[in-house]
Amino acid sequence: MQRPLSSRATLDSVAEELKEQPSLLSSFRRSALWSELGERGDPIFVGAGDSYAASLCASYLAGPRVLALDPCSLAESVAWAKGRPVYIVSISGETRSNVELAQSLKTVAKRVVAITCNPESRLAGAVDGTVELPFKPRFKSPGFASFTLSLAAALKICGLESDFDPENLLPRAAAESKRLRVARGGNVTHFAGNNEAYAISIYGAAKIYELLGGRAQASLLEEFSHMPLFSLSTLDRVNVIESPSWHKGKRLCEMLREGGYSSSLIRGTGGRVENLYLLAFAMQMAAVGAARKVGLRAPYFLGAKKKLRISDEMIY
């Protein structure tokens, strides 16, 4: 979520932003060609909320040389950044913990760079450079284009982009979104997957929180069977995200169904980067569709005034 803006999102305006993403991504991916791996040092990505999920996606795809952390975690372990470039992902550039972290890293990190939509923000003024995302949020809303563009920037920095057409992903994402199961009422929507599938699951859970005000949880595949499984209700919904080369997720899905629980298996067919965007689009569509089914006309969090006030006070 972004810092309060003057206009308010509706589900229709959020859906329109969803459709704008492929053209925004195509333009940004053509213009942003760089990599920070190798002799320049291995980067640390920092972010909170959606920005943390984007950072973690890049970290899993790049491997152990690239670290993804929450800003408060790195603030407590600043020495980890010694001699390394640090990229702070913040759409608004006004998140207090990010600004404070940037200031504390000045004499430690090799350099500190902001990935943001707001080059005039406090964060941009506290770092050595900025990567400006070609998107200006028009209203306070759950992050759609801001997330996928942040992800694109992080992947470019890691030299991990691949050649595919984002425009072709929307129809495929629409089909995948129908396989994603969203729980109703006070029941829990689970996402379970490994590596970048786990990272994008954190983003999927965030969209359930923000758009529906629903309960959701992201888990690693192995950890699901050790912990969340024991709180599972037959009214909960489990989305198992499996990589093409791994089959433990399929077994989990089968076992859950045999036990009388609702479970869906989602398995990507493209490359890892392409599949990541596909899952992001599908999770966005599934959350918007579920919100419409329960009669919401705007994202839930916009009407949750008490929670929103606490969130804004803590973040900004």
What does this structure look like?
With 316 residues, this protein is an alpha/beta fold. The chain is built from 13 helices and 9 strands. The strands form 2 sheets. The chain has a 5-stranded parallel sheet. The chain has a 4-stranded parallel sheet with strand order 7-6-8-9, with helices on both faces. Helix 1 (11-31) packs parallel to helix 6. Mean pLDDT is 92; it is low at 1-6.
Question: Any descriptors?
Answer:
316 residues; 5-stranded parallel β-sheet; 13 helices
Q: What is the structure about, briefly put?
A:
With 316 residues, this protein is of the alpha/beta class. It has helices at residues 11-31, 50-62, 71-75, 96-104, 122-126, 145-157, 169-177, 196-212, 221-226, 248-258, 272-293, 300-303, 305-315; strands at 44-46, 67-69, 85-89, 111-116, 129-132, 188-193, 215-219, 237-242, 262-267.
Write the topology of this structure:
Blueprint: H1 11-31, E1 44-46, H2 50-62, E2 67-69, H3 71-75, E3 85-89, H4 96-104, E4 111-116, H5 122-126, E5 129-132, H6 145-157, H7 169-177, E6 188-193, H8 196-212, E7 215-219, H9 221-226, E8 237-242, H10 248-258, E9 262-267, H11 272-293, H12 300-303, H13 305-315
Parallel strand pairs: 1-2, 1-3, 3-4, 4-5, 6-7, 6-8, 8-9
Task: Report the major sheet.
Answer: 5 strands, parallel
**Mean pLDDT over the full residue set:** 92
- In which range does the helix fraction lie? 40-55%
Strands ordered across the widest β-sheet = 2-1-3-4-5
Compute the number of helices: 13
Low-confidence stretches: 1-6
The N- to C-terminal Cα distance equals: 11 Å
Order of helices and strands: HEHEHEHEHEHHEHEHEHEHHH
Strand content: 5-15%
